[in-house]
């Protein structure tokens, strides 16, 4: 978020070594990812729209940083506690299962992993 909000997305993509032909796709992926991690679930796009955005058939709206208050330290502790309590209630009231399936990794998926690593290693 910090790099995107500062208008440094193109710089990050360049530093990551993304080839020129993939830069537009990388920028599209980052913007869609930021839309998908909105604080409120109802603000996130539905998966069919995510696919269309990634394919380039639908325009991507400007992601808004719904975490800005948290990053600034101005987010109310009460709201954080309430969120944790509600999450705990949800977890306790439902059951879950884990399904493990074999994963096939393609070369294009490796490139996405490289992009992810480049974005996560810079600010930590």
Automatic annotation (TrEMBL):
Repeat found in the keyword field: no
Molecular function terms from GO: ATP binding; kinase activity
Keyword Lipid biosynthesis: no
InterPro entries: CR_Ser/Thr_kinase (IPR052059)
Keywords from the UniProt entry: ATP-binding, Kinase, Nucleotide-binding, Receptor, Transferase
Name under which the protein is recorded: LRR receptor-like serine/threonine-protein kinase At5g10290 family
Organism phylogeny: Eukaryota, Viridiplantae, Streptophyta, Embryophyta, Tracheophyta
């Amino acid at each position: 978020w910090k790099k995107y909000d500062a208008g440094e997305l193109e710089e990050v993509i360049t530093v990551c070594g993304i080839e020129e032909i993939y830069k537009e796709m990388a920028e599209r992926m980052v913007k869609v990812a930021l839309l998908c991690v909105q604080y409120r679930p109802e603000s996130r796009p539905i998966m069919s729209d995510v696919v269309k955005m990634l394919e380039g058939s639908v325009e991507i709206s400007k992601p808004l940083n719904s975490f800005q208050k948290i990053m600034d330290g101005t987010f109310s502790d009460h709201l954080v506690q309430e969120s944790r309590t509600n999450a705990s209630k949800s977890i306790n009231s439902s059951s879950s299962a884990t399904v493990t399936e074999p994963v096939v990794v393609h070369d294009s998926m490796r490139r996405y992993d490289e992009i992810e690593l480049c974005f996560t290693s810079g600010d930590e």
